[in-house]
Structures are given as structure tokens and as C-alpha cells.
Amino acid sequence: MIELINLSKSFGQHQVLHEVSYTFSDGKVYGIVGENGAGKTTLFRCIAGLETAIGSIKSDLQPLKNNLGYLTSDPYFLSKLTGEEYIYLLTDARGKKIKNLSERNIFELPLKEYASSYSTGMKKKLALTATLLQDNSYYILDEPFNGIDLQSSIILTEIILRLKAMGKTILISSHIFSTLRDTCDEILVLEAGRISKSVKKEEFGDFEEEMKEQILKKDIDKLWL
Amino acid sequence: MVNSYLRLQYKLLTRHIKAMGLPIPVAFLLLLGLGYLIHYALVQYPVFGCYAVILGNFQLLFLLTEKNRNDFLKNTYSKREFHTIRLWENGLVILPSFIILLVHNQWLYTLLLILLAVVFAFLTFKTFGKSIPTPFAKKPFEFIIGFRRSYLLLLVLYLLAGIGFYVANPNLVLFCIACIALTCVFYYQLPEPIFYLWNDHHTPRGFLMRKFRRGILQCLLVTLPLILIYILLFPSDLFNACILLGGVFFLLPFAITLKYVAYPREINFPEGFALALCFSFYPLILALLPFYYIKAINNLKNHL
Predict the structure, then answer these.
(1) Which of A79, A85, A134 lies nearest to residue B140, judging by beta carbons?
(2) Domains plus CATH for chain A?
(3) pLDDT tens figures, B24-66
(4) Which residues pair with A56 in a beta bridge?
């Protein structure tokens, strides 16, 4: 369980998060949606402890950061470090010993090559593999489906469902609604730093229709005058 | 074209100096000071001083041959412009050392320096297979990256040490071991992304201690073959080797500590100055290490 209590974050005069309160339960997958700049990544970074924020964050396992796997939207790799070495770096940092890495390379990544030379999708898959091998209790996956191919997308969906079955708490942000529909138990809509809506699984269909209607009416009409 | 590229490089260099917190005139004064130090070292130790100057320039020139950087230049400029740029870059890099060697009438080394600058301007180093293998596979990352950036220098130092063994010159071997160990110290100038540190589950103290332990072990791994042969061939010089290694093994944790004092920025002037001071007088480390250690621990509390 992760509980956010009145979480606020500002960058100078610009307030990005406004007293966000929510409880994320174990064994559930939460989708966070919102327009660009709505504060999704900032929210994730605050939960991870990469940003200081006002308010408090509680979790069953302490410290939260040592039990949290965070897949950033744009993973960064140092030059001259191979995929294999990156995985060892991240798992070693959590005190995990990895055996038979080649067998656990489910995305069939070229682990002996420099990670910085990977394509966008491969980088994402490498970062995801390293995060998963850390064996955490909580996961934050920021845009995990961006840039990855169809096959990997199917694998990732299955991985998320298995993590959920194992009782892990997972927070995902994605702009691809179908992926959220397939994986999430609940979707939270973040608008200008506030959770404006919480949608349960049984309401996903209506929510998608409602969103489409709103967005198309608002924007496309303007484009075609 | 070439002119504007070099002007841009100068602009980038000045930005880098300003980011280090140094006004440009001060940076140039420091450069002059460094030049004087090299000059002084050459007066004191003419042979090893020249070796050090050549090896230092060798590593700088090697870094400029980095494949991605050169690929970018090749894609952007014509072949002729590319080689002109590379010659200019190498020429500017060796210029201070070139002047110093010339002042000391070290004609042979001056010629060698020019030769290196020209040769490196036409070289691009391809990786062996997919990546350069290192002996540190499961213990990333400073030594892995550092090793891949300096393997040619290490190779030259090993060759030079081999000559030292062959001609029974313990000082030359000792010089090479010291250079290798010092190269390892420089591996720690690269700060990792905050995310890497965030991932670590250690306490600041545990984190630093693990870095020290691994740093010393990995440094030993690189230098041990030479040390063992040295002890075997020159047992009467064992004391000198111990003094040198003892110093380096204090300098390495000190460099690691300074890295995390400055973190997340790179080591700047104050930390660099402290390192240079300790390098010239090892015992100072004993006095400064506890002070910087506490600073590093406090800084790491913000990131771990």
C-alpha cells in the first residue's frame, strides 16, 4: 500500500501538484492519465523521492524507495556501458544477485552491446528488464509502452498482470488507452496537478467514449474551422 | 566552416569553465600555473617528466578519437574539413606541452608529440566486436567505463613497464604502476545520473565504503600483475613500492569522497584543488579525508 496525503509540489511560482491524496492498494494496477504537463511525471518523481514535496507519503514497506522499481519515461544510459552491465548495476544497487541473465533476457536484447547505442524501444526494454529483476514490491512505470514493438507490448501486458497477481502495487502512465484497459483496475485522471476523476474497471468503456467525445469536439473542430 | 567549428568549441569550453565556477581569466591563470608546475617537474625529473607529459597528451588525444564524436564530424563536414578540424583540435590540445618541451630543449619528445597529434588526427578506434571486454564485468561502473576510455594508455604503460623489467630499471616500472593507479583515480571524475544513486539501497556510509572497497580491489586488479613481477625481480625496492601503493590507495578513496562531495555536479575547482594538493603531499589526505568524508555523507543523504 502507498498512501499519498496532501501532496503538493511547486517549481518556483509554478505549482505542479495540488494537495494530491490517494491510497494505492496492494495487488492493484493504477493508470494515471492526463494531458502533457498535467503533473504525472512529477507525481511519480515525488512518490519515488526524487523530488521533495509538501505533504506525506506512507507505505507498508519502509523506506519506500528501496522497495520501488521506477521505469522512467526516458531511461538514461552512460556511454560505454553494455546492457548486461546496466542490469548488473541496477540489481547490484539493490543487493540482488542475478544468475543466468541470458535466460532471463525475455526481450532478446543484445546485452553485450553498449546500451547507449540501443534504439528507443530497446532502451525501454532494457530499463524495464533491470527494474523487474530488482524484484520490488511497488512499481512505477512511466510510459512503459512508448516506443516498444507489438510483441514486447503483449509481453509487457502479461508481465504487469502477473505482477498484479503476485500482490504488487503498480502505477502506470500511458497515452495508449487500450494498454490501460488491458492492465488497470482503476484509472486516475490528473488535471492541472489534481486528481479530477477516478474511474473503476467497469466504467472504462464509458470513460473512453466520454474522453473521445470531449477531445474530438474540443480540438478537431478547431483545426477544420 | 572550420573556423566557426573551432569558435563553437571555444564557446563550449568557456561555458564549461564557467559552469565549474571559475572566471575565464582565472582559468587561464591556473593553466599557466599548471604549465609552470610541469616545467618545474621537468627540471626536477627530466626523463620521467617527459614521459608523463607524453602519456598525458596521449590520453587526451585518444579521447578525441571517440567514435560517435568522429562519426558526427564526418557526417557534418567534408573529408578534407574533417581532417583539418581534427588536426587543429589535436594541435591545440598539445600546444601547451609542446611549448614546455621546446623550452626544455626536449627535441625528441617534441617531435614525438607532433607525430602523435598527426597520427591521432587520422585514426578512429573501432571497438573489438560489440564492446571492449573488461575484467570488471559484474561490478559496474566507474572502472568499466574508465577502462574503456583509457585502455590504450594502459597498454602503453604496460609495454613501458615491460621495457623497465627488461632493462632492469625499477624506477621506470614504479613510474608506470603509479601512472596506472593515477589513471584509475581519474575514473571517478564522472558523476552518475541521480537515478542510479536513487536505486541504491545502501546507507550513505555503506555506499561510500562499498565504493572504497571496490575501487581499491579493482585498482589492484589492474596493477597487481606489475606489482607481483616488480616484487619478484626487485625485492630490495619493495619499500618504495609499498610507499607508492599506500599513497595511491589513500588517494583513491579520497577521490571517491570528493566526487560525492561535489555530486551531482562534476568535481570543480575547490575539490580539484584539494585533490591536487593531496597528490603533491600524500600525508595531507589523512587530515582532509575525515572532513570531506563527513561532507560527502551529508550530501549523499539527499540522494540515497
Answers:
(1) A85
(2) 2-76+136-223 (3.40.50.300)
(3) 888 888 888 888 888 888 888 888 888 888 988 998 998 888 8
(4) A5
